[in-house]
Amino acid sequence: MAIGCRARQNGLTLVEIMVAVALSVILLAGVIQIFVGTKGTYRLQDNMSRLQENGRFALNYLTRDVRMAGYKGCTNFGEVTNTLNDKTELAYDFEVGLTGFNDVGASPPAILSAAGITPAPGTDVIVIRRDKDQPTRVTKNNSSAQIFAEATSEVKGGCSDGTDKISGICQGDILMVSDCVKSRVFQAGNITVTGGTEANITHPSSGDPGNTPSSWGGASAPANEQFDEDAEIVRIGTFVYFVSVRADGMPVLNRYDGATVSELVEGAEDLQIDYGEDTDQDRTADVYRTADAVVDWSQVVSARIHLLLRSNDNNLADSPTAYTFNGAKVTATSLPSSDRYLRREFTATVTVRNRAS
C-alpha cells in the first residue's frame, strides 16, 4: 500500500510575511529607541563633564594669576622703582598688581586694541601683573652699566630671537631685582656670561620699551640704586584675561601675555569680576566694587570672579533653559527658541597675597 508524503513548503503566505515584517519593525524600533536614548544620555553626560572640566581649568588659571598679582620681590610693601619707559601704560605699570575694565564695549583696553584684539561686548577684562618663574641670585653689587647674576643655565638659541637664554632670561625680558628692602623694574639688554658662572645684564635705554635712566648708578651711587648678593632677579610679565567670539561663533576665554593669545576654554560666554578694596588699610577687603567703581587699584586685595560657561553642543535640552549669572536671572523666554545649550556659573573669591599679607 503506498503511503503519501506531505508536500514540502514552497513559500510563505502574504499574511505570514506581514506578521514577520511587523514583528521586525517592532523589534527594530525598540533597538533604535534604546540607541537614541543611550546616545542622548551620553551626549548630555559628556557635555556636562566637559563643562565642569572647562570651568575648573579656567578658574585654576585665573585664580593662580590673581593670587600672585602685584609681586614686588621679597618685600611686598617696600619701595618699587620702575625705570621702564611708558611705565604708566597697562603693560608696564608694575607698581599696581591688578587693573580691571567693566563691561567693555566698542573701546577695549589699549593693551588689547593695540594688538588688534576685540573682547566680547558687555564682558569684563582683567589685567594682571606678576612674576613668571623662579628667581636668579645676584652675585655682587651692580656697576653703573650692568647687574651681575648667577649663570645657572645657558640654552643656545633658546630665545625667540635666536639669542641664548641665560639663567632663564632673554634679551628684552622685563625683570625685577629685589633685596627685601627695595625693588627695581627694568628691561634686560645684552646678556653675557663671564667665567662660566656669572651673567652680566645690561640696562639700556634702547629697546621696547627701554629704560630711563639707563645707568645702574654703581657702588658709589645712593643706597636705593645698589643691589648686592642679598638680592634676587625674577622675570615679570603682564597677563590679560578676556572673552571673545571666534569666527565660527564659539565664545572662548583667552589669556594674552603681550605677544600671544592663548585660548583657555571654549564656551565662555561672560566674565564678570568684582574687586575687594581695602578702605581702612588693614589689608582686608571692606567693599566689593565693579572695575569702573574702584577708587584706588593699589588697595585692591581680592577679586570675586564670575565665569559663565555653556556646553559645546546645542540641542541638549527640550527647550531654552533659564539660568542665573552674577545674581541676575535670565529667563527662558529671553533666549532664542533654537538655544538648547546647558549653562553653568563658576565662581571664586581670590585673595591677592602680595597685597593682603
Structure report:
With 357 residues, the protein is α+β, with helices and mostly antiparallel strands. It is built from three helices and 20 strands. It is elongated and about 130 Å long. It starts with 13 loop residues before the first helix and ends with a helix.
Topology:
Blueprint: H1 14-67, E1 79-82, E2 98-101, H2 110-113, E3 125-131, E4 136-140, E5 146-150, E6 154-155, E7 165-166, E8 174-178, E9 182-187, E10 191-194, E11 198-202, E12 232-245, E13 251-256, E14 261-266, E15 268-277, E16 287-290, E17 300-310, E18 323-325, E19 328-330, E20 343-351, H3 353-356
User: How large is the radius of gyration?
Assistant: 31 Å
Let me know the average pLDDT: 89
Class by alpha and beta content: alpha+beta
Order of helices and strands: HEEHEEEEEEEEEEEEEEEEEEH
Question: Poorly predicted ranges (pLDDT <50, ≥5 residues)?
Answer: none
| Fraction of helical residues | 10-25%
What is the CA-CA span between the terminal residues? 116 Å
Distinct helical segment count: 3
Strand count, sense and closure of the main sheet?
A: 12 strands, mixed
Form type: elongated
Beta-strand segment tally = 20
Strand content: 25-35%
Give the gist of this structure.
The protein has 357 residues and is an alpha+beta fold. It has helices at 14-67, 110-113, 353-356, and strands at 79-82, 98-101, 125-131, 136-140, 146-150, 154-155, 165-166, 174-178, 182-187, 191-194, 198-202, 232-245, 251-256, 261-266, 268-277, 287-290, 300-310, 323-325, 328-330, 343-351.
